[in-house]
Design brief:
- The chain has about 270 residues and is of the alpha/beta class.
- It has one domain: Bira Bifunctional Protein, Domain 2 (BirA Bifunctional Protein, domain 2), CATH 3.30.930.10.
- The chain contains four helices and eleven strands.
- It has helices at about 45-65, 145-160, 225-230, 235-255; strands at about 35-45, 70-75, 80-85, 115, 125, 130-135, 170, 175-180, 180-190, 195-200, 220-225.
- The strands form two sheets. Strands 1, 2, 6, 7, 8, 9, 10 and 11 form an eight-stranded mixed β-sheet that branches. Strands 4-3-5 form a three-stranded mixed β-sheet, with no helix packed on it.
- A hairpin with a 2-residue loop joins strand 8 (about 175-180) and strand 9.
- Helix 2 (about 145-160) crosses helix 4.
- The radius of gyration is 18 Å and the shape is globular.
Length: about 270
């Protein structure tokens, strides 16, 4: 699926160029290249392809520390992922999974399963969800993973506030919530202080695939979306456009070594 026309300013895959302009009305008085964050729209793609691209970008940044940080926006075809943990109970809707010898963890799941190098338990990705994969060198950000997680959460909270959705953190539960309903999941991996994976914001569409798992290993959690919270229509493309502007404006906060980390879940 080629969604390239949705985002004329987002840098397409395979196209080289300088960091993107900050955007009309944003960052007045500073160079359009000062943000040093490249934002790319990938459209709807299979998980394996996005994972391969992330690994390639992380390897290149490890070899050349002068490369710009990147933020990949996309939708996934339906897929489940789980962090590398011996506890696989979140792959069952009951929170309990008894497997026979040779039986796959994903045998009862309606979509493919990937075990990946992020923290956390099982989650679902699919159409109607904005996926954000920041490839950011945390050596430029004080090598502070907690600060990075709080920055991601705050980015989503600030965005949702623009749509009158009162989102928040919850103590000891990484992610973004509306009351007791989870609207965004966050799971990151870090290699040599370079980040991969990131966040999944439920924008619109079908949330029923979450019913086959215990999302993020939290029993009885209710998943929600922007559409459900507001009864308004949104597209993933529109949401990507707005969060792009916020990320470009707020990346300096993450890189400010003297800034206090936001207070929130660990």
């Amino acid at each position: 699926m080629n969604n390239r026309g949705l985002h004329p300013r987002l840098l397409p895959i395979g196209e080289k160029g300088p960091p993107l302009p900050v955007g009309e009305g944003w960052g007045e008085g500073r160079s359009k290249y000062e943000a040093s964050l490249i934002v790319r729209w990938l459209g709807r793609i299979e998980f394996a392809g996005a994972l391969s691209l992330q690994e390639e970008l992380v390897a290149k940044k490890r070899e050349d520390g002068s490369l710009e940080d990147q933020l990949l926006f996309l939708e996934h075809e339906p897929v489940y992922t789980i962090g590398r943990t011996p506890d696989r109970s979140s792959l069952s809707a009951t929170g309990f999974r008894r497997t026979r010898d040779g039986e796959s963890d994903s045998v009862h799941l309606p979509h493919p399963l990937f075990s990946i190098n992020r923290g956390g338990q099982a989650t679902y990705h699919g159409p109607g969800q904005l996926i954000g994969y920041p490839i950011i060198d945390l050596r430029r950000c004080g090598q502070d993973l907690h600060k990075y997680l709080r920055w991601l959460e705050q980015l989503i909270i600030d965005f949702l506030a623009q749509h009158d959705i009162a989102a928040k953190r919850r103590q000891s539960l990484t992610g973004v919530w509306v009351e007791d309903r989870k609207i965004a999941s966050i799971g990151v991996g870090v290699r040599h202080w370079i980040t991969m994976h990131g966040f999944a914001l439920n924008v619109c569409g079908d949330l029923s695939p979450f019913d086959h798992i215990v999302p993020c290993g939290i029993n009885n959690v209710a998943m929600t979306s922007m559409e459900k919270e507001t009864t308004k229509s949104f597209t993933v493309g529109e949401v990507a456009r707005t969060i792009e502007k916020l990320a470009l404006d707020k990346i300096s906060e993450l890189r400010n070594q003297g800034a206090r980390s936001a207070v929130g879940a660990s």
